[in-house]
Structures are given as structure tokens and as C-alpha cells.
Design goal:
Radius of gyration: 19 Å
Shape: globular
Structural class: mainly alpha
Helix content: over 70%
Number of strands: 0
Order of helices and strands: HHHHHHHHHHHHHHH
CATH architecture: Up-down Bundle
Strand content: under 5%
Largest sheet: none
Distance between the termini: 15 Å
CATH class: Mainly Alpha
Length: 307
Amino acid sequence: MAVFFSLLTNLLPLYILIGMGFIAARYLKVDRQSLASLAIFMFMPIVVFGFVVNLEFQPSYILLPLVIFAVSIITGLGFLWIGRKIYGDSTANLMAMCCSMGNTGYFGLPLVFLFFNEEQTAIYIFTMLGGSVYEATFGYYLAARGAFDVKTSLKKLAKFPGLYAIAAGIIVNRLALEPPELFWTYWAYFKGAYVVLGMMIVGAALAGVNKLVFGPRFMSLVFFGKFVVWPVLIYAFVLFDRIVLQWYTPDIHNLILIMSLVPPAANIAAFAAQMNMKPEKAATTILAGTVFALVYIPAMIWLLGIR
């Protein structure tokens, strides 16, 4: 229990930042979209670039984002099928999004900062590519119920600056170039700012909830998909690697397990609002999942023996 409460204490500051984001958006009228644009187009590329430059890249790392993409597809399709059997309307699409899209960036990355070193964080960022590609392709299909074609999805993916930051970081890394010391000084500032901004974005997104819509059956299915099925599928891969492949270290296993534990992505609320896909139910589910994660993540970290 001492370990559990220690982990809980480490997570509490992140939730305070979420609360600050909620207050900023609800009472100070800070625009969530402006915060997100700053994080995605200004802070994230610099933070990602710095981590990838320091990454000691191994060919085996290429499999990691593919695993995340595959698990997202399996979960998304599986719960889309279940949702259509139960609901038969856009609620099925919303459920599939909530089950398959995790908050690996705004929520997961600050969490990784707490428990892992820079080399391991760089591996996590590279692994996040799988979720980013899924969100920009199949995730958009779920959000728009097929309204976006492949060309549109690829255009949206091409605008994601994190991809170019990773590519630039890999080039600098492979050429053994060393950024100036001044870059690393300001990179540390950007890294801290991204943690603050990222968590505040989660709170700002939740501030848009004008009415709470609790659907017990819907929320139970989402929680089962995101907090049970996702971790089980990732843990199955970890066991497969331990027994058969033996490619990855325990630290990398812990990284992808952490990735599987995060709550549903905050961006789902924006997708649902844009597509008029029960936005109140989406935001309520994200809020409930984020609050639940405060206890769930420390419990799972303790149970799985992470760190």
C-alpha cells in the first residue's frame, strides 16, 4: 500500500494541472483550441525532436508502433461490432473511439516523464506513432462514420508536426550531429511547459461539458474496452516477447504497458462535437475515465510491478 500511495501522490500534481486547465477554460475563457495548437505545433515538435536525437535506435523498435496500431484496430473494430449489435446508431462509433483511442500524448507523456529516463521516453514517443497514425486514419473514419476518404485522412496525417520532428530527429541522430548546448537549455524549458500545457488541455476539454450524460451500459463497455481489453492485449504481446521473441528489455515492456493504461483520448470530445455524435456522452465518459485513472493507474503499476 505504501507503493500505491507513493504513486498516487506522484500523479496528484498532474490532476491539479487538469483542474487549472478546467478553471482557465470555464472561468477565464481560455480557448482550448488555442492551447492545443500551441502544444501540437510549437511545443511537441521541439520536445519530440530532442528525445529522438538522444535515442539509441534499434531495428527492433520498428515493431512497437505497429503493435500499438494493430491493438487499436482490433479494439476499434471489435467494439464497433459490439456497439452495432447493441445500439445500431452512431453510439457504436463513439464507443469504438473511446475504447481504441487513448490519451497517450497529453496524459501518457507526462506520466512517462515521472517514471522513466530520457532514453526510455524517446522510445515511448517513437511508439506513439502507432496511435497517431491510427487516430489520423481509422480513428477519423470512426468519427465521421466513413465521411473521410483515404486521401483526406492522409492529408490530415501529413499535417501532424510530430511526424516531421521524429523524422528530423532520426536524421540528426543517424548523422551523429550534436545540437548546441543552448538548444538543450531551452529544450528542458519546453519539456516542462509541454507537461503543464498538455494536462491543462485535458482540463480545458472537460470544461466544455455543459451537461453530464451517464449511460451505465455505454460507460461499462468503454471502461471494459479501454481499461481491460487494451491492457490484456498489450500484456499478451509482452508475454509473447518474453517467451518467443526476446527482443525487448523489461523497461520497454513497462513503457508499452503504461501506454495501455491511459484513459480515453481528450480529442474524442472534439471529434464527437464536430460530427454531432452525442458530444455530452463523449465528454462525460472522458471525464469519468480520467478521474478513474487517478486510482486505476497506480493500482495497475503496483500490480504489474512496473518500475
